[in-house]
Design goal:
By secondary structure, the protein is of the alpha/beta class. The protein is built from twelve helices and 20 strands. The longest helix has 15 residues. The structure holds 2'-monophosphoadenosine-5'-diphosphate. 2'-monophosphoadenosine-5'-diphosphate binds next to helix 9.
Length: about 400
């Protein structure tokens, strides 16, 4: 696998790359470390009558990713003697990028790259699908195609030189995923444990889910973290559901087995990690959505008394019936107050109880917790919950 750093303005002394590429108008030349000419790149439209071999011919489409088989077929007709066919197209969705990865895996004489933010995974995962080379600029200012990652990011975050055909792929799916820091945590863990695994972020919309699972069928995906709004939507694609997934109807962790995908949920358990014995304690849950369900399940498993409050009282009532716990429109005493809504609930008259622990499961800075702290409550944000669920996911990804 080769990492090409382009364009190189200053020759770095200690950069570990196999090939260097220089821009020379439209014809690019790639050199190896001994500065011998290795390849000549010639653009698809370039009228070249005689050329050096080995040769890379390239095709670019900055708008979309169309029929890849057809593009390759045409290139082969025009340049039958080329060593490599570079196909760089713009990914309008992650599905385009996944199609490119599958295509790359099937064609070892192709250098398949998707441009744009959705296309970054084709660059990160390129060694796993046998791409002969990929491109990475030395600095962000040197980027010459959208979606390129710097060699430092490939090296430090994704441990790119360690990736190969045996590497197993993990990732987070959801919409959006840009805020997720899972790739930092999980890639670090894989590296520390010496695992041949890599973790990427993939934006998948609800309506793309069926095609997503189809696309990754032939790629070595082994595990997935699932975030909003897909936690409930992934259920039809599961072969097996853990008891917690069956009970709460949502999954945040998928593991691939010989039979298919197994779904688990690490959210609720993580929210309560480190809180000690909760049996007999009264917990008020603010909200009655998917996140509330995971937390309520975990609380009831620990024999806590659960009272649900929700903006729409009917939903609180229905949920309390389903889980056989209580609901209230006005609440008073409690030991634990957990905000599972994404709102700061400014308009809700909350009886702040000084000896209570107040938790907001949101990862964002929470003005809800600021108010609780001002009233002398002990407060806890969503970060520790996030880390706990990620640690549990690491166990499931073993
Ligand atoms: P999630 O999976 O993140 O829990 P959800 O299933 O859409 O998302 O549930 C969102 C929860 O947050 C609901 O309980 C919702 O209250 P309603 O049932 O009344 O819609 C609650 N919520 C969202 N925004 C809110 C707001 N501004 N004020 C109060 N509750 C809010």
């Amino acid at each position: 696998m080769t990492l090409v750093c382009a364009p190189v303005k200053v020759w770095p002394q200690n950069l570990q790359v196999d090939l260097y590429e220089f821009e020379e108008g439209r014809v690019k030349t790639i050199y190896n470390q001994n500065r011998e000419l290795v390849f000549t790149l010639i653009d698809w439209e370039e009228e070249v009558t005689s050329f050096l071999t080995p040769l890379i011919v390239s095709y670019h489409n900055y708008q979309e990713t169309k029929d890849l088989e057809l593009i390759l077929e045409k290139m082969k007709q025009k340049w039958p003697l080329a060593t490599y066919y570079k196909i760089a197209t713009f990914a309008t969705s992650s599905l385009d990028a996944l199609r490119m990865l599958v295509f790359q895996k099937q064609n070892t004489n192709v250098i398949g790259i998707c441009m744009g933010k959705h296309g970054s995974i084709t660059r990160i995962l390129s060694p796993i699908v046998s791409a002969p080379l990929t491109y990475a600029p030395l600095t962000e200012e040197d980027q010459n195609a959208p979606g390129q990652l710097t060699w430092k990011e490939l090296l430090h975050t994704y441990h790119f030189p360690l990736l190969n055909k045996q590497t197993r792929i993990y990732g987070v799916i959801g919409d959006p995923v840009s805020q997720s820091v899972g790739h930092l945590f999980h890639n670090d863990q894989f590296k520390l444990k010496g695992k041949n695994k890599v973790y990427v972020k993939i934006k998948v919309k609800e309506q793309e889910l069926a095609q997503f699972f189809e696309c990754i069928e032939s790629l070595p995906f082994q595990g997935l973290s699932v975030t909003a709004p897909l936690k409930e939507k992934v259920l039809p694609f599961l072969h097996t559901r853990s008891p917690v997934v069956s009970r709460i109807g949502a999954s945040n962790t998928l593991v691939r087995t010989e039979n298919g995908w197994e779904g688990d949920n690490t959210d609720g358990e993580a929210a309560l990690k480190g809180l000690g014995d909760l049996s007999g304690q009264t917990a008020v849950i603010l909200g009655a959505g998917g996140a509330a369900r995971a937390v309520i399940y975990a609380l009831l498993s620990q024999k806590a008394r659960v009272v649900i409050w929700n903006r729409t009282p009917d939903k609180a009532r229905a949920l309390s019936q389903e889980f056989q716990c209580e609901w209230a429109h006005i609440f008073s005493s409690y030991d634990l107050l957990i905000n599972t809504t994404s709102s700061s609930l400014e308009e809700v008259d909350i009886p702040w109880i000084k000896k209570a622990l107040v938790i907001d499961i949101s990862l964002k800075p929470s003005s809800f917790l600021e108010r609780a702290a001002l009233h002398g409550c002990q407060v806890m944000g969503g970060f520790s919950m996030y880390i706990q669920q990620a640690i549990k996911q690491q166990e499931l990804f073993e």
